Automatic annotation (TrEMBL), chains A, B:
Name by which UniProt lists this protein: NUDIX domain-containing protein
Domain (Nudix hydrolase): residue spans on this chain: 18-153
Organism, as annotated: Microbacterium insulae
The organism's place on the tree of life at top rank: Bacteria
Segment forming the signal sequence: none
Length: 238, 238
DNA sequence: CCAAAAGTGTTATGGCTACACCCATGC
DNA sequence: GCATGGGTGTAGCCATAACACTTTTGG
């Protein structure tokens, strides 16, 4: 492959009048704040160290490499900027307004879920976790993007089983219910929730129990035969 | 704005090692075939006149201009290649597999609906309407893309009111039901369909009736106050 | 024993489905 | 009149919601 340096789409030369393709990801997890009872939706942001919006917080991402697919680019840029590899990753939307950046950038945005234990806090430089409900002013149009991702998350939790992407392998029904309650921001009836999820066939009961408080709760595993979400005819393409 | 000709992303020079951004659209309409009872889902394809897959049928589209948003590019390329302007247009997915084209192309794909009366057949050169259920082998990964768009169409018709995008301003309940039946490929109970759609509050009854066969059927209009589909916090952005 | 969460049972409600039935028009 | 689609009524079914109730642990 020949590559002329001046044509490298990853160069930050603003005088070059081309459209560049970036890939960003909105990663959600649940965080239990010290004083709070219910966990909250949180996401990691990266402090920008370069000119457009330098110093402001932005979604993790990077330029699309000429020799990699979109999904691969999302995974790679995510790992490079935050060190995270999500349990669930799905394309969200392509943002391409002319004025969303000083230079012309089309961003293919992904959204992802990560288990709380995988969200290694206080590790990588320039990365910080924020409460999704109270974000600062982000770089570019990233506030809008997060808002849209949150909408998709709340929507999708209603008709698919993505909530499992926020839990460890084994979990109690109360923990699963807590995930739904945090995302939907309303209480669910424990009795009805149990029956719904039991009848869905997505859970496998184990012989183990979570002890420590009151009556022990049975631990469940996720039934891998049932997909997290119906993505239609799109498989692991890209 | 300065533009170096060799950097023009719209040039078809395959030796230039950059990622170019294209915009394509899957446009659906309903066509009543001569001998058939029920209308069928149909879409227009464009015969390729250039090298990659020359002579094969492909989705209408074109290169993204540096100074236009994604939605605008979809509308423009659609009008340029087919002369159509849809009643409903929504982003579908960004396709960016490395091997989907000889040169690296990321395609932002839209899907659209058009009313049968607007689908001016036999007009534009190199454009032909195909039955969505029996397509030939298309250029690039366009067969997969159409399959995904059909999946989205069938999904979305279940929880939104996009079916109106395939009808004229005034229509009978039987005509609206026929749209649903064609997309979902199954019969719906006329009585239950009537009640469902009446209770949804999306229809405004008029004083006019469709005559010509048997008992006249009341004509309805679409209630503009209710959106065709909930797109979440994304408005008319781009 | 008591508090609290785990887990079960029961009833009401509302939407959907199936289908019987009446209405109005063309022929 | 009669065939046909327009339009209404109704009973069964099933998922959900609300909530009373029992069970099992920690303290």
């Amino acid at each position: 492959m020949t590559r002329t340096s001046t044509l490298d789409p990853r160069s930050a030369d603003a005088s070059v009048d081309v459209t560049r393709v970036a890939v960003s990801t909105v990663i959600f997890t649940l965080r239990r704040l010290p004083g709070a009872d219910a966990p909250r939706v949180a996401l990691p942001l990266v402090r920008r160290t370069r000119d457009p919006h330098e110093g402001q917080w932005a979604l993790p991402g990077g330029w699309l490499d000429v020799a990699e697919g979109l999904d691969a680019a999302a995974s790679r840029t995510l790992a490079e900027t935050t060190g995270l590899s999500p349990s669930y990753l799905e394309q969200l939307y392509a943002f391409g307004a002319v004025d969303r950046s000083p230079t012309r950038v089309v961003s293919i945005v992904y959204w992802a879920l990560i288990r709380p234990d995988e969200a290694s806090d206080d590790s990588v430089e320039n990365v910080q976790w924020f409460d999704a409900a109270s974000l600062p002013a982000l770089a570019f149009d990233h506030n809008d993007i997060v808002e849209y991702a949150l909408w998709r998350l709340r929507n999708k939790v209603g008709y698919s089983r993505i909530a499992h992407g926020l839990l460890a392998d084994e979990f109690t029904l109360a923990e699963l219910r807590e995930v739904y309650e945090s995302i939907l921001d309303r209480r669910l009836d424990p009795a009805n929730f149990r029956r719904q999820v039991e009848n869905s066939g997505t859970l496998i009961p184990t012989d183990r129990f979570r002890t420590g408080s009151h009556r022990p709760a049975r631990l469940y595993r996720y039934n891998q035969d049932v997909e997290l979400a119906d993505r239609g005819p799109l498989g692991v393409r890209q």
